Amino acid sequence: MPCFISLGARLRLAALAGALLAGTPARAQTAAPDDAPTLLPEVNVSASGLQLGSSDMATPVSVLEGDELVRRRAATLGETLDGEPGIQSTHFGAGASRPVIRGMDGPRVQVLSDGSELQDASTVSPDHAVVSEPLLARQIEVLRGPSALIHGGGAIGGVVNVLDDKIPTAIPEKGYEGSVELRGASGAREQTGALQLTGGAGHVAVHVEGLARDASDYRVGSGWSGGAAVPGSFNRSDAGSVGLSWIADRGYLGLAYTRQGARYGLPGHNHGFEGCHAHGDHLHCGDDGHDHGGADEPEHGANDVPVVDLRSGRWDLRGELRRPFAGAEALRLRASSTDYRHDEVEDGSIATTFRNKAHDLRVELQHAPLAGWRGVLGVQAMQRRFSAEGEEAYVQPTETRRASLFMLEETQWRQWRFSAALRHERQTVDALESGLRSSLGGSSVALGAVWKFTPGYQLSVSLTHARRMPTAEELYAKGLHMATSTYERGNPALRPEQARSIDFGLRKTAGDTTFAVSLYRNRVKDYIYGRTLDVLDGLQLLQYSQQDASFTGMEAQLRQRLNRYLGVTLFGDLVRAQLAGGAMLARIPAARAGLRLDGAWQGWDGQIEWVQVMRQNRIAEFETATPGYGMLNVGATYNGRFGDGTPWQFYVRAGNLTNRLAWAHTSFIKNAAPLMGRNIVVGMRVPF
Asked: What positions does the domain TonB-dependent receptor plug occupy (predicted)?
């Protein structure tokens, strides 16, 4: 994105503009009468396959859009979603963070770009970034649990679908539309600018967008023995996209190219494990005659911390044809081709290079109602060639091919809505150096029902049997992984996981008191996990193994409307996860509870909340307990208009206002990288 003035100067101009505009009359916002009914917002969920409303889904759905998404957005997808019921993040410094849904992460949580699978290296290791930019997203949907298996039987934790505007689907009414945004944050001295623009005429529309971010090492809460900031927690990233669409009355076909880059540090990286290796089921270090200090070796300083230099280029092809032939409502196409690479740079030279070249194709046919049932039939194919070269090449080059057939059907009878989904997958993973091959397949099925037994109330239940195939890393890993202080060994004999899940939900969607409660139980046969065989100076020898496991938990929130301006919400979640023998699983999120007061008046909209995270002492072997903490967060937005009627929005958010020192139990590097301390975000966004 061209820069004629510095990003810092643009932020100062935006702040000055915000001050001058403080006297501009705000957009009128009519307060509802005291006796007006309150309704939970209803939004369509693209990832549902049939554009169902959130209240028609049999399992809990979170949708971030509009002002709420503007307030919540962070530099990574995990941090953006952290705080939603049942969702936390892996938190690997400032540059890499994936969502953790109901205690599951990695390949059990699938991340999509408008229904098409993202292809990066984030499922391989938590220190690898998700190639998705929240500040350029239009809407983010989260489907918890494995019921969204039309997107993959392996997504037994859930699905995150990031919707964007990179491929236009309609011609702007006035010929153009877009937005410009500038923001800054105090916790890491972050400066970010973003621009989106769509123009079109006749049948052709073009979209361009770009973003640049510069954030230094972030400061932590008061009292940390490691200092005021986390060394090497900086994050500098950029993204740009160009899309072109042909748009007609019955549909569209578009192509977009997206380029993303990032350069971020890896806090807590320890060279003390170099040269460590496995002899049988035991670790050996120092055999090369050098001193390997292990966990006692000093951490890297800010100047010599390893750095990830990431580059990703992706082509997206999307199309939809409505009423293609008799009996069909829509034919949809999603295809992508990704060329991903990141280098891990140590002492100025490339130590390890990760590459991922992948292709994905998805075709859906939505049929007209047949005997009262409407649904979607589809096929999906994926090919992924992954390789790692260098010091930490702990996975040999692999090629993964997956082909799937799926269907989703739903019908409505009186106050009941029923749904059924079926997916069959076949996966082959070839290890290109050893010649080993894993060829597995299986079917997944989900049944759900929603009963709106009285106006404003609904009860839901879903039953799922899903199969997840082991990943290439789980099958063939062999080597030292210093980012997570592990030596990992794969297991070519791994079988598919089989998850049997049940989810109950009760919601009240109308009136001054609204609530949503969800209870779930997920029993996974042959759960794949890293079993610790040996520990030496903090380095763990992990063998990918299988054992039955269970995940049990709940999510709940209740909102009380106090008057036409104010409301108060109680919320919380918890999950308990353990192996069949009673042993706890590692890095399971701690229970949380919170209280939020929200208000709206004229152009102002704000909230103040206290979130209490409990102590996590239900820990796995060789894991340490994590103390609990409480955080005070405050946020507000103001919507106004320029003299010509163009809207603008000013927002401010203060996180961890009391500057509490806190750690994320879900993080591999929790002790080396505590959570961010007090952080004040100020931004201005102008849509046009």
From this structure: 56-159
Residue 78: C-alpha distances to residues 92, 549, 660 (Å):
10, 25, 20
Tell me: the pLDDT tens digits for 83-93? Answer: 899 999 999 98
> What three-state secondary structure class fits 93?
coil
List the one residue out of 610, 679, 601 whose CA is nearest residue 637: 601
Q: 658-663 long-range CB contacts below 8 Å, 24 or more apart? A: 658/630, 658/631, 658/632, 659/221, 659/222, 660/221, 660/222, 660/629, 660/630, 660/631, 661/220, 661/221, 661/222, 661/223, 661/224, 661/629, 662/221, 662/613, 662/629, 662/631, 663/626, 663/627, 663/629
Could you give the CA distance from residue 131 to residue 76 in angstroms, rounded to a whole number?
9
**DSSP conformation letters of 235-270:** EEEEEEEEEEEEEETTEEEEEEEEEEEEEEE-TT--
User: Collapsing DSSP states into helix, strand and coil, what is residue 276?
Assistant: coil
Judge whether 214 and 7 are in contact, CB under 8 Å.
Answer: yes
CA dist 567 and 561 (Å) reads 4
Report which of 131, 534, 492 is spatially closest to residue 339, judged by C-alpha positions.
Answer: 131
H helix runs in 200-341, sequence order: none
> What residue ranges define each of the domains in the chain, with the CATH number in brackets?
7-687 (2.40.170.20)
pTM for the whole structure: 0.89
Q: For residue 9, which phi and psi values (nearest 5 degrees)? A: -65, -40
Digit-coded pLDDT (tens) for 601-638: 999 999 999 999 999 999 998 899 999 999 999 999 99
Beta bridge partners of 172: none
Kindly indicate the confidence band of residue 279, based on its pLDDT and cuts at 50, 70 and 90.
confident
List the end-to-end C-alpha distance of the chain, in Å, as a whole number. Answer: 19
What distances in angstroms separate CA 618 from CA 104, 140, 538, 623, one per listed residue? Answer: 16, 31, 20, 10
CA distance 144 to 292: 43
Q: How far is CA 123 from the centre of its chain?
A: 11
Tokens 């103001």 belong to residue? 638
Using alpha carbons, select from 589, 586, 495, 502 the residue that is nearest to residue 547: 495
User: Residue 624: how many CB atoms within 10 A of its CB?
Assistant: 12
H, E, C per residue of 532-573: EEEEECCEEEEEEEEEEEEEEEEEEEEEEECCCCEEEEEEEE
